[in-house]
Amino acid sequence: MRPTTDEGPHRLAAPAVPGPTERSLVLGLLKASHPVPAAAVTVLTALLATVFGLDLASGALAVAAVAAGQLSIGWSNDRLDLVRDRAAGRRDKPLATGAARPGTVGAAACTALLVCVPLSLGCGLLAGAVHLGGVAGGWAYNLWLKRTVLSWLPYTVASGLLPAFLTLALPGGPWPPPWLTAAAALLGTGAHFANVLPDLDDDLASGVRGLPQRLGRRGCSASAAALTLASCVTLTAGPGGRASLAGAAPVGVAVALCAVAVAGPPALLRGRGPFVAILALAGLDVVLLVLAGTAPAGARIAP
Questions:
Q1: Which of 3, 37, 47, 208 stands the most exposed, by the fewest C-beta atoms within 10 Å?
Q2: E strand or H helix at 200
Q3: Which of 198, 196, 195, 77 lies closest to 140 in space, CA to CA?
Q4: Which of these, 73, 69, 48, lies nearest to 59 by C-alpha position?
Q5: Are 79 and 106 in contact (CB under 8 A)?
Q6: From the CB of residue 254, how many other CB atoms can be counted at a distance below 10 Å?
Q7: Rounded mean pLDDT for each run of 10 residues along the chain, 303 residues in total
Q8: The pLDDT value given to residue 19
Q9: Where are the beta strands (DSSP E) in the chain?
């Protein structure tokens, strides 16, 4: 009697492992774009465009340019980190889990970048150059700077340039006042430190040692809170030279964030809470600008 083998017509077929569906691949592609930060920056851009008085066509063009730039940065970030994320076993990264395809994400990043160029320049040559400079900073972060002590620099530059991109798209192309540029730069830098907090341990394990990682969790959270507080104070005091009563709200929240960062339990510093709080403060700051009727010189508040 011959021994049974796995060859021939009686071979038992291995159970098929279902691959990702078309819908799951689309969702994976969307998640790989870093949708929360991308959406937050895009919404803030739309609010600022309203504050500065851009007409509907110009405002829509600027918002579309920012959205395309943010998508290109988010997708390129995950694509460039593919090997590192797989080695770290990151279950929150679609490329690492197979929920998204590397070729698709890479193509999406390049396509979004190509679309961003004409959309940005459509707002004016100088305005477009300013915005594309910020997008280039985001790509430089992904390619190299995120692993260096200068990891904060692209956030500072890109955030500080965002108001200028919008004001330069106005008739006459005015530059924003220095206080607004400084407030935006401080807020963007604070968001960088807060955004690192949930992934800090994974970053260190995979060799990513930007400035927040070098400072450790407590130092990183304290820096995020202090930068946010400085931004709120600058934005509140800048327009009229003194803090308004309404402006005390975001300053008070920022002070509370500082207290939590310095003395709060470590568990509060591990989630997305600090990052979400900073984004909420940014939105509140913009709303306060609208209510105060404050706009850069040469701009107007839309009715």
A1: 3
A2: helix 200-205
A3: 77
A4: 48
A5: yes
A6: 25
A7: 44 48 87 91 90 92 97 96 86 90 96 98 97 96 94 94 94 89 89 84 84 88 83 74 57 70 63 66 63 51 42
A8: 57
A9: none
